[in-house]
Amino acid sequence: MLELVESHGCFGGTQRIYRHQSATIGLPMRFSVFMPKEASQKKVPALFFLAGLTCTEETFSIKAGAQRFAAQQGIALISPDTSPRGAGVPGETDSWDFGVSAGFYVDATQESWSKHYRMYSYVRDELRETVVNELSIDSSRLGIFGHSMGGHGALMLALRNPDTYRSVSAFAPVAAPMRCPWGEKAFGGYLGADREVWRQYDASELVGNATRKFDEGILVDQGLADQFLAEQLNPDVFEAACEAAKQPLTLRRHQGYDHGFFFIQSFIEDHIRHHARILLTL
């Protein structure tokens, strides 16, 4: 059962925060939802936004400025938290890039982490089923996008589940997590030492084996003043993998933009339009 925590009028619709007891995570989870005015009369398409390291379910709704453009298109926006809260795993608050606020959208297999850190299944199954069953959302018209760690999550979830997510985009994604310090730390901690297991969560590894291509294209925006670009993000690796797999990709590189939400604000309208072009014609 959903508990409504907050509700605010927003661009003719409502911006809400919900809390529910998650069977997948085994703890209470929160997520934000923007519902456009059209949802009062019919089921609407929805975009899931996965946020990055240190973020919560509120970060995107407060900082991205997406509601104006989602309202214009009649599309709902859903953003979950980035990890379980209150799991009590030893060490889960020791660093900002692993543990709390850093679930990396994987299902952990390692002892201590595997009981609660199951963000992949939570996003793909429980969260999706909850909003479809409880809110006025069209289950056949769902897209996914995200930023940084969440960009990794969006690309990976879409490539693994192309029949669930019909459109996908990302801002500054961790595009080849097996090849960067953030990904190696997260995958090693959550999944163990076997790098073959890691491949199922790496978009640059997955794109060549995807069961269905996104023929309408994947959109990725990357700032060239991004402080994490050289060491963590690897957009060139993903670009090469898409080219080899003949997966249409629009990778836009922007001078002067860094890794933060001012970058996202600058191009969020393009991403909403990218998804609307696909979801509203299904």
Automatic annotation (TrEMBL):
GO process annotations (BP): formaldehyde catabolic process
Keywords from the named record: Hydrolase, Serine esterase
MF (Gene Ontology): carboxylic ester hydrolase activity; S-formylglutathione hydrolase activity
Superkingdom: Bacteria
EC code: 3.1.2.12
Biological role: Serine hydrolase involved in the detoxification of formaldehyde.
Family recorded in the similarity comment: Belongs to the esterase D family.
Protein name: S-formylglutathione hydrolase
The species this protein was found in: Paraburkholderia dipogonis
Protein's gene: fghA
